[in-house]
Amino acid sequence: MKHFRDKIKTQFLTIFLLFAFSISSFSQQGLTLEQALNVAESNSPTMKKTRLSLIRSQENLNAQNAALKSNFSLTLNPIGYTQNREFNDLISKWNSRTTTESYGNFTVSQPIILTDARISLTNRFGYKDSYSEYTNTTTKGFSNNLSLNLDQPLFTYNKTKLSLKELQLSLENAQLNYAIQLLSLEKQVTQSFYNVYQQQQSLEISNQAYQNMQKSYEVSKNKVDAGISAREEMFQAELNLATTKSDFENKQVSFENAKDDFKLLIGMSLYEDLLVMPNIDVDSVAVDVSFAIDQGLANRMELRQRKISIETSQFDLIQTKAQNEFKGSLGLSLGLFGDNEKFGNVYASPTDNETVSLSLNIPLWDWGERKSKIKASEASVETANISLEEEQNDIILGIRKVYRNLLNLQNQIGIARQSVTNAQLTYDLNLEKYKNGDLTGMDLNIYQNQLSGKQLSYTSSLISYKLELLNLKIQTLYDFEKKEAVTPVMTID
Predict the structure, then answer these.
(1) Does domain 2-58+165-312+380-485 have CATH number 2.160.10.10?
(2) For a tag on the chain, would you pick the N or C end, based on fewer CB atoms within 10 A?
(3) Total-model pTM
């Protein structure tokens, strides 16, 4: 009677687990690898931050380009009033002065990229009412000062050109980083996607083993009830069934955890359910390692990033050399000034205003500060060159390792496939022996575990080969499956 109740309990639990699993599968969202990659590109937190960095670099360059165009500004001072008593050196007396004025400045400024100069047109128009105690007179009237000004740095580097080039390189580096992060995300998503698939397959294999063990349990129970087998066989069958049931439940937990990690990675809602639908059909892909290395050295974006780092270091060296250096500045101003009590007669008697100024900065002695800073900057340039060489060697080594792994994995797939076939045949033969009473339940459980292990190993070898092909594509920016170059995304909308 006890065995009958245990049987009913076991069958009820099995039906409940299978029903729950089928209901979960029915409500799950099927997701292919391509769909997962699209979701991750839009929703992944890592890609969102990288995209914002790219936007920041683009807008900084846009701002710099806008600053190179003519700048228009207007400054207004509607009313100003001052009353001061001050000592006048010219007359050697104290004098009180009261002034009321109103003026406005209109300026058009244009930087010159070619020479790093700045040319500006300025017009100052105002009205002034001023009283002086010394002369006991009040002066009222309008005034206008129109001037054309030029400020030209001499004997130094072009700061405008250098700043623009730095921002252009910063944007290019951000674009490269975005594309690199996108490839890195593809690798992470693919690994996580196949990990979910492995857990999914492991759950199915565990469920299959659980079903097989239930059948074995029924066979053992019938034998014991018929007096063909010893009751100890029944105890072992119950233990085997409990073990496979526990393994099935553990696989369910691992499967759910893997799905949650995957949803977090791609930016999918944790409350949505999914079922991955991979394509793990494997065809041997011919790879020419010399061609792969040439593609990697020609296309890898990390090499361009190292070259940008070299250029940036050289810009730092230019700026360092400009410290405490001999340099100058030339200033030119041509203007026309007029004033009159009546607005319409402001330029009745104009006056020309001209200014020419030349200033020179001549360093004398800095105790070796400039020389030491130049050496430090030169060391940074050399470090950047060494990093470029290291990156090239890392690319070559990485491609070689991937190539060797692919050859080894091809052999492993063949061995794993044959191992599954042999394990299935072995299990089927021993299952017949068990039914005929020539094999114990403990021995049959060993063969079942062997079959499950071989099936998982075969799935793992297929996934490893797929991931290594993806790794080769990322290392070379060439898709050997499709036989076409990979064009990374360099910009975003």
Answers:
(1) no
(2) C
(3) 0.72
